[in-house]
User: Fold this.
Amino acid sequence: MPMPVAVVISGRGSNMEAIARASLSAGSPYKIVRVIADRETAGGLARAAALGIPTSVVPVKQFADRASFDAALAAELEGSGAKLVALAGFMRILSSEFVQRFEGRLLNIHPSLLPLYKGLDTHARALAAGDSHHGASVHFVTAELDGGPVIMQGRLRIRPGDTPDSVSARVHTLEHIIYPHVCNLIASGRVEWRAGSVLFDGAPLAAPLIEESDAAA
Ligand code: GRF
Assistant:
């Protein structure tokens, strides 16, 4: 039976769509059982519906505080039957209670080569620093913002004349490769969370797996 996966979004949901489309291929070890947004206006809701995926909204504005929103989101996720939760452009910081409850089954994608550039404006920050490379990271979520163990990174070379927009477009292309890949690795049992660290094929993962795409490099 494919592993049931839920994807949580706030925006356009292009990563959600990449994860969902990859799961449609024959023999996929995972299946998207629900897409949840924290706002009605998330463009990804229509993308998910077009793919026949059940959607729900936990409208953040209707909750008085983070604890009550997180409790409602947790209930929705548990109700979906998901064994793995992929945050994909979800623009809320989750409480440590929530993160603990989903420990080892909660993923996020962040648009930088972590531990570089936690937080926002990552593309502009990488360009301003004059970095030669940039990219995206898929990591297990822990209580430290953008600080959990990284499973896989997509890496690309920054080109002369790159702008935050041009580099963001190439980072997105890589994100759409690495996020489904990580879902596959977890659902097939090759990547496991073990007491705060990552095992790959049964051995501790010393450094993130790297995807270096020629097309995006
Ligand atoms: C991605 O760049 C991801 O790294 C960040 O938010 C963006 C989401 O994009 N966390 P999309 O909604 O999947 O298109």
